[in-house]
């Protein structure tokens, strides 16, 4: 067939002319190679790509052009800030006939990392960290923002204090009539009754966002995740034996924290090390049917849910 196929996006005009901020696609499946310090792996990403449509009379953009350009990220070359910058420039250039001047891409994927057990040698398992990369080119200025979610365990300080009081009351009730108590008797009582009350703890999530310099050589994903896990002190585990579970219980006991405590810990760990960091923490309460939440917003940003 040599007959030209119709293209109504070029031959027709918009019935209701107006400018549009962003037009494009969402949820494109794409394999990307992450080649980072101490991490090299291909991941399954979902890509959202858009350009602006400032000309009110143009009926539509060229979706296929955007698709072909973002598809080039799926080759064997590692993803980098520089590659995203080049992609955004190419997206704008491909839509000169639409007068497009801005472009953006969002990549969402899970960073799969092998983590060792706390104590047991030669024991490890895989943990997934949800990641979202946002790259925007507006008036020639590149903005890169990275968001990662880290799951950890949190034990309530108030609940721990209430539990200790009940254990103390139980101990005094047991030994109140004895003038002297030997160490063996105390140890035996604790072995049987130290769990007379236990504080509530829960799986918790820290969503961390940072801004990346436009000339950053890489995204620094693993380094950021490691810093977050060190700050909270109680990252969830993968493969465990009893010794690892006991070590994890000790970590929780040494890291009692409200949602406010966790957010402040993370903010302190990020300030001075990353550009414009933001923190959103959720404790998925085991006591309540609702979550406890806290935010530390990036500088100049409003706190939104």
In short:
The chain is α+β, with helices and mostly antiparallel strands and about 300 residues long. It is built from 8 helices and 8 strands.
Description:
By secondary structure, the chain is α+β, with helices and mostly antiparallel strands. Helices cover 30% and strands 33% of the residues. It contains eight helices and eight strands. It has an eight-stranded antiparallel sheet with strand order 1-2-3-4-5-6-7-8. Strand 7 (275-283) and strand 8 (292-296) form a beta hairpin. Helix 6 (221-232) packs across helix 8 (259-270). It is elongated and about 100 Å long. The protein starts with 7 loop residues before the first helix and ends in a 9-residue tail after the last strand.
Major β-sheet profile: 8 strands, antiparallel
Tell me, what's the shape? elongated
- Helix/strand-derived class? alpha+beta
Strand order of the largest sheet: 1-2-3-4-5-6-7-8
What does the secondary structure layout of this molecule look like, with pairings?
Elements: H1 8-11, E1 20-36, E2 39-53, H2 63-71, H3 81-93, E3 103-116, E4 124-138, E5 141-155, H4 157-175, H5 183-193, E6 201-212, H6 221-232, H7 242-254, H8 259-270, E7 275-283, E8 292-296
Antiparallel strand pairs: 1-2, 2-3, 3-4, 4-5, 5-6, 6-7, 7-8
Helix pairs in contact: 6-8
